[in-house]
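Study this chain:
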Amino acid sequence: MQNRTLTFILAGGVGSRLLPLTLRRSKPAVPFGGKYRIIDFTLANCLHSGLRRVLVLTQYKSHSLHKHLRDGWSIFNPELGEYITAVPAQMNYGDHWYEGTADAVFQNLNLIDRSDADFTLILSGDHIYRMDYEALLRFHKDHGGDVTVACIEVAVERAKDAFGVAVTNEQMLIVDYKEKPKQPTPIAADPNKTLASMGLYVFPTKLLKQVLLEDQYNTDSSHDLAKDVLPVLVQNKKVYAYKFGGKKGRVTQDRYWRDVGTIDAYYKANMDLLEPVPPLNLYQVDWPIRTYQPQTPPARIVPGTSGAEGVFISSMLASGVVVSGGNVRNSVLFEGIFIDDRATIDQSILFAGVQVGAEAALRNCIVDKNVKIPPQEQIGYDLTTDRHRFTVTEQGIVVVPEGFVFG
């Protein structure tokens, strides 16, 4: 089915809850895990699932994302009809930009027609997970339904006001669907869990075009796939739920899926990678997460000018990092970082090019790229003071924005 499938990746969201990390970049372009961008996980899933016609719908502050796609994902041969192509909003139909997920796809009906695809797979570009979409497409074909929605079991408390929730029968046919309900319906096997939509959809292309046109003519619609289109389909069509993390598929089943829509969720997902056995498996040899990497020298951990040994414990570091007598614990370091003598980095995420001065101390921080931390500076120890300078989350994570100048 893969060669008869056109894939859309929705990557145009504002990502306001991730501010200030999204001040100058879109949410899918936010760095993650020491070397990746968030969108790399969805793109890697497409690559390993044999999907070779991929359209990335962009809009908000998209330059960083476009550059990343050009540098890291120009890997397919257009002569063979293969592509990963960024598609910015172009006002193809009407005088407005993308107004919702359904409208974003509708605005590109010309590309759907040009593809001559039998099926259309719609994905989100801002989730962290590994998934074999081939198994999802095979499920859709085998069940003979109209639409298939990928779903995952989550705690009822976590699903409240956060996810679309599906209720299914024994054949996994969705009999009821509510977007962000205050009281999610639990699954039969466990009253503490519910079945949440992952925002992944398989449509027959002909049906997709029909429902998008109907949605455009609905003046009461906000033109959102989850909020407006899917509830109508559940009432009128056969919509099946595909349960994420099943035994089918070639990817090892870590069953990890995170919507990193807030700073705290983003921080926690990065910290998950530091567990002795990480819940997200980045090390499956035949399922690597591809990305763009600059040409940088190997990382080094060396004594500082005072003679203090560089210490590096339970952390991840990219190439080009130099720890010169500093102390790094439980942290994620991107490329080209310099940690000076007797500086302390604890439970923090440092983006590319950050420099930390001698005897500075950072705890529970996210520092955006190319920031220079002065010697003896302290961040994350006095949150009252930090709130006057930086964003501080509900869970006490301090975010130093790109371009911040101390003093």
Observations:
- Residues 300-400 form a domain with the UDP N-Acetylglucosamine Acyltransferase; domain 1 fold (CATH 2.160.10.10).
- The first helix runs from residue 39 to 48.
